[in-house]
Amino acid sequence: TELMAYAAALPKAELHLHIEGSLEPELMFKLAQRNKIELPYKSVEEIRSAYQFSNLQDFLDIYYQGMSVLQTEEDFFDLTMAYLNRVRADNVRHVEIFFDPQGHTARGVPFGTAIGGILTAFSLAKIQFGMTTKLIMCFLRHLPEEDAFDTLKQAEPWLDQISGVGLDSSEVGHPPSKFERVFARAKELGLKLVAHAGEEGPPEYVYEALDQLTIDRLDHGNRSLEDQALIERLVREEMTLTVCPLSNLKLCVVDDLTSHPIKRMLDLGLRATINSDDPSYFGGYMNENFKGIIDALDLSKDDVRTLCENSFRGSFLSDGEKRAQL
Ligand code: ADE
Ligand code: ZN
Predict the structure, then answer these.
(1) Distance from CA of residue 158 to its chain's centroid?
(2) Does Hydrolase count among this protein's keywords (predicted)?
């Protein structure tokens, strides 16, 4: 459609992307062979057909298993380069990427191996495509806060190349308040703060992320819509929400894209953005997420432009860098 062509051509920033969730089955297979790792799958097709989830935990089990093929700095470089090269075609000009260091250090892969490969790809993308990048280190919320403190300690040599910390993995039963102290420490270190909240968890978790973690940006936030006072607060505080339509569909946060709340969020004045979350697992990168909502919802040209502008507004670029993109 004409609206989709318009969306595809607009410059965008991606603010909610787990780099380990961009691992395509083809690369997973190649890295398994290169590193002589046994996968429980015999072919690329078998990997793809295993990607059937009915909730977040089903997905996470497969996601953590998939990342076991990532062993060397070159693997992390190849993974990151493949993602950056792919979204360049979607007119993504700036990315703020999440990585899960504990998903690697727990397997004996050093922190420096993972971050080293990612940062080398960032440098090359700047030189080759003029793409700007930032890195956000996520703490796994199903693990103790003490482990998050250990991870923050391991990050010390790279702090000037890490923009912020986030909170991801199994949401229900692991509220933001569990990480209040480590987020306070990250803030003292000058890091930006984001957290997944209100994906499967209740509005109460969004309040905790705001009040106890003092987040700068809210990842997902869908269930905020259940609480009128919370909606009004998010609007008033101009909080950016990193919404992930195809992820919401695949993890059954919504029944189908025609019932996706993104249009309602925009109509309420929330600063929503479009993101892919884990594109290899959820069936699409940035523009496929736009296609999903454009086909399913009655979005206007203004809505589409607002979504793209919100992505730069809500980014951690400087005001000058934002002006250059808007
Ligand atoms: N890790 C990777 N993707 C995630 C998501 N959508 N929610 C929580 N943790 C994640
Ligand atoms: Zn996510």
Answers:
(1) 20
(2) yes
